[in-house]
Amino acid sequence: RRRIVIDTDTASDDVVALLYALRQSDVVIEAITVVAGNLPLELCVKNAFVSIEKAGTYEPPVYMGAQKPLCKELFTSEYVHGSDGMGEMLLPSQKGVAQEEHAANAIVSLARKYPGEIDLITLGPLTNLALAAILEPNLSSLLSSVWVMGGAGSKIGNITPVAEFNLFVDPHAAQIVLDANLKPQFIGWDVSTDETFLNEKDMKTLEKGSETSRFALRCNKTLVELNAKYWGRIGFDLPDPTAMIAFLHPSIIEKQREAFCQMSCDDSVTQGQLVIDWQNVLGKSSNATIIEKIDGQKFKKLLFDSLLVDC
Ligand code: BDR
Ligand code: CA
């Protein structure tokens, strides 16, 4: 079975991504490493345990990581995910206890234990992964692959005009990941719009499906309300599940390109932007792959096949 590590700032769309991954019988999640992002760290950890319980399969170890970005104050997004990151379900606290080891150390330990075997995906700011890369300069040759939900290959940003949330929260960490030769496969926020956007019909399908699919819908309530109120859109996008499903089933990827990328880290209007040299005007070798499109119908089928049943 494929060994994977999931790094997450667990709130609504991370939750759906975790539910999906926890239900894949051909992968084993060696660790869920948690980072502050959507919410302060403790709430993200709680939501990781809630996700494990709701998936109803097995209990991977959960590790607590960075409480704040490397060089900035933490910027959270309760307005998107709810004060609890769960659409205001305000669930009681969980019985799960996080491991003692720091998330960044856990990433390094697992990479050393299974050299060349671990596929790692990040669904939040890159702080934990950057720390791991600093702790183990050889990380790039120890990991099998690194996938990052972050950036926006073809569209505008979702947190500033040009920046996507995860990379904006910790741009310095993202630059460290690029410099560490980890060759990330970026799946931007833009990939989870258009064909992969869950519309009114999809929401009805989730509502009717199972306890699990109702839960997946319910924890995105704040986002659904935000979309309706500010953009007149019925439905919601799922950036983290889009990244997760492409990571687990790369055959659904329709378009991807390699390019040289660098982060805008300075304190300006572009801070947090993933600058992609599409035309190779700098003449530098590519250091990342940008996934630009996946098959939306296949994405929804895989998602629904997993969530519409209870375990
Ligand atoms: C990303 O930002 C977060 O709010 C989501 O969980 C996702 O990881 C999308 O830009
Ligand atoms: Ca996330």
TrEMBL record:
Question: InterPro entries this protein is in?
Answer: I/U_nuclsd_hydro_CS, Inosine/uridine_hydrolase_dom, IUN_hydrolase, Ribo_hydro-like
Q: Where is the Inosine/uridine-preferring nucleoside hydrolase domain?
A: 4-301
Could you tell me which Pfam families the record lists for this protein? Answer: IU_nuc_hydro
Q: Which domain of life is it from?
A: Bacteria
Transport among keywords: no
Q: Which UniProt keywords apply?
A: Glycosidase, Hydrolase
The GO terms describing molecular function are: hydrolase activity, hydrolyzing N-glycosyl compounds
Protein name in UniProt: Inosine-uridine nucleoside N-ribohydrolase
| Source organism | Sphaerochaeta pleomorpha (strain ATCC BAA-1885 / DSM 22778 / Grapes)
Q: What is the lineage of its organism?
A: Bacteria, Pseudomonadati, Spirochaetota, Spirochaetia, Spirochaetales
